[in-house]
Amino acid sequence: MPEHELTRRVMYDLVWSEPMTKVAERLGISDVALKKICDKHRVPTPARGYWAKKAAGKPVKHVPLHDTADPQHEHISIYGSQQNLTPEVREVLNQERQRRKALRKIAPPPGAFEPTSPVENVHPSIAATAKALRKAKPYRDDVVRASGPGCCGIEVGVTSVERVITILDALARALEARGLSIELPGSYMRVAMEPDELTFSLVERIEKRPHIPTMEELAVEERQKKKRERETRLWSLGYKRAYPEFDFVRSGELSLQIANEYVGLRRNWADGKRQRLEDLTDDIAGGIVAYLTGIKSRRQERERQHRNWERQRHLDALARAREERETKRAEFLSRLGMVSAEAGQLKSFVAGLRSELKKNGSGELALLLEWADAYVSRLEGELTPNAIAEALGDQELFPDPDPLVLPEAQED
Question: Distance between CA atoms of 31 and 43, rounded to whole angstroms?
Fold first, then answer.
């Protein structure tokens, strides 16, 4: 079910009343997600720098809300994620938020991107990766790899090697400051807070671009075409281009991606027009800590649900067993009633028959009366307290203590 239902007008008033980061936080989503929702529903949003200019008293442009021809744009449903975060996760997010505020006060303002200088004293946890990347011989397309035990499982273009080492070094130190360390199984990176763990990878975006053939490739293509024409074969049969249709080029744009299931928190960081991963390592480390806390909360919730499920299954089994026992109890009591009624009826019948036997009797009737007396005695014997108690014990209809008693109602 949607956590928030809004109209375009309400959304418009919200995003023009305060910064979108604050609106997004109240709605339980990211500011990026909020911007996408507004764009989808044709809700104009303040331009970048709007609130800073307004606070400084400078003139700002306020875009009016226009009508839309699509009625679906009028109704906005938001399925927030952070509204469902546990108190533990919220506490970690708040701590990281305060940490970032403190760092911003002492950090220099961001400037133009500059080439990355090689890191000399690389953090021990990624030293093997740094060594492998720096000494690796480039594969085709100038790609180097660092994989295997002790390495991060990274594949990047040679021009991004020092950036990767810088990012991993800073990230390892930021995690170490939070009491965590990077573990390297060989093909990915892992951070653990037992019994929970998080895996992530650092990747370089690959662009698919149309291949621009060189003069040599065009010459080869022409020679192949003429050869086929001389052999009187159709050009379209068995045709193989002398050069690839596309090139897959390393863009130099890096991103860090958490591979675990989504827990309602950010799990991707990437280079952008105004930021690079080098400047986000502390935020990423904080995000990893928060994500680990989210994984822990998700696991604990699953365990709680499993315990409750097991408990409910146990209660259902007890209920079925009690119901079956109640049926047996009723059957036992019904049989006692039937035995009592049968004994009473036979006793009365035998007494009447015996009175008649004094006037007109035979040897067979006498034998019948003798057997009937014994049979009635056996029936009455089943109705004595001792006999009933023994039968109850054999059938375990009223055990003490009762193993089917309902446990005290409780829930984790």
Answer: 14
Backbone dihedral region for residue 28 (phi beyond 0: left; psi -120 to 50: alpha; all else: beta): left
pLDDT in tens, 86-137: 777 777 777 777 776 766 655 444 444 556 678 889 999 999 999 999 998 8
d(CA 339, CA 348): 14
How many Å separate Cα 59 from the centre of its chain? Answer: 46
360 pLDDT band, cuts 50/70/90, is low
Residue 182 tokens, joined: 């990077």
Q: Cα separation of 164 and 254, whole Å? A: 8
CA-nearest of 4, 7, 80 to 41 is 7
Structure tokens at 351: 């007494």
Q: Distance between CA 81 and CA 85 in Å, rounded?
A: 7
pLDDT band at 84 (very low <50, low <70, confident <90, very high): low
401 compared with 111, residue with greater pLDDT: 401
Of residues 242 and 206, more confidently modeled: 206
